[in-house]
Amino acid sequence: MPKSRRSISIIPVTNIPEIKPDDDLVKIVLEAASDSGLSIEGGDVLVFAQKIISKAENRIVDLNNVSPSPYAHTLSKEVSKDPRLIEVILSETTKIIKMDQRKPEKGRLIVETRGGVISANAGVDASNVSGGNMVTLLPLDSDKSANKLADGFKDKLRVDVAIIIIDTVGRPWRDGLVDIAIGCSGIKALKDYRGETDSKGFELNATVMAVADEIASAAGLLMEKADSVPVVVVKGYKYESGGRGAKELIRNPEDDLFR
Amino acid sequence: MPKSRRSISIIPVTNIPEIKPDDDLVKIVLEAASDSGLSIEGGDVLVFAQKIISKAENRIVDLNNVSPSPYAHTLSKEVSKDPRLIEVILSETTKIIKMDQRKPEKGRLIVETRGGVISANAGVDASNVSGGNMVTLLPLDSDKSANKLADGFKDKLRVDVAIIIIDTVGRPWRDGLVDIAIGCSGIKALKDYRGETDSKGFELNATVMAVADEIASAAGLLMEKADSVPVVVVKGYKYESGGRGAKELIRNPEDDLFR
Lengths: 259, 259
Fold this sequence. Notes:
The first copy, chain A, is an alpha+beta fold.
């Protein structure tokens, strides 16, 4: 298959073992990539599912050790969830954006998390964690986690790679979940086309693209939920280095029509 | 570069000429692909920017021929836009979702379009159209447009390809635009993992992925606004065929916490 120079490849890193607290993700990813003949090069974007970052950073809670507050009990009835889970969600929440008291059986609770990302249940998740009562929390600071990984790869490989940590979220107005960037390093999350002209010579308006979210979604296509592909390598995408992490993707609340 | 069997390639179709009303997009894309040595095969996903579909379907309006209604004049002051543009936007709108009267200078007007997609300005857009007063409208029925393209490729190639028509939209809570699917053919827009088990044997919950939107975002990475790459081919993604088009991505308003 002949390809243009500008093609992008999205490649899964297979055979990554179950991640445990304090595991060295850089070493594990490089070994898994090497085992499958995949070389990681400067300019690649390495996309990590939030779940393995959370496991490596020991962001795991055993619900059996959680004592729900009175408010967690109240809320648990309003959204039909385990009060211990609600307690954990509240511990990650800075603001409740919306909940679905009309249909408590749907259990919808949309909150703003400490990192600023708005998502259901503050990203607290029970799937793909060993033990029926264990849940994972989002990393404490996903941009920091991404920086640490970028530094680790630089140490080992002597080249710069970009890191994106992604999570799967719902959206207003549209059905189905998509993946978004919750942490970034080495890549500008937003690409600003303002001031450039279109193919007719007219200035482009309002075109700041959320490229980190678009890469997150591209990588998400290979992170099938029932599989074990928590890391994906994106090759061939010409990103702008630098930036201030995924926090650039969080809209200023004063400028948000939907908060 | 060795690659796993499950890798995905995103390949731009370059050298597509300026599209005019009634142009045969199937013929034009096949010629452009062939010129650059790119073969389109069964199972590929062909992603089209809305703009060239709109041009081929003559969904173009010259603002010089538009007489704004009194309401368009009122609204034009509230969001600081040309009243003729407002008139065109209203002609594509079924419901105004939100506008920004506190900051009219930002010109934000979020509406539900006839196809059900919620977007700024009903997808009416001035960039990349010849002539300073010309704007494009979204296709009348993007799923139908996608079906027509899929049939056209089937006719010429004797294989099934999937078609996704995409548009660039803003989102609540997050800065930067992303691409979403507004029309689909031959691919299920949603992939339902419910009932499947995760790698620990636990049943996955609430995991219906909007794969058509994820493909739209992946393709969007190559459709740089100032370039002329209105078509992208995605190879290697194992999609489920069938489905009911991109309308499956529109959340039922009664089930939407944000309408």
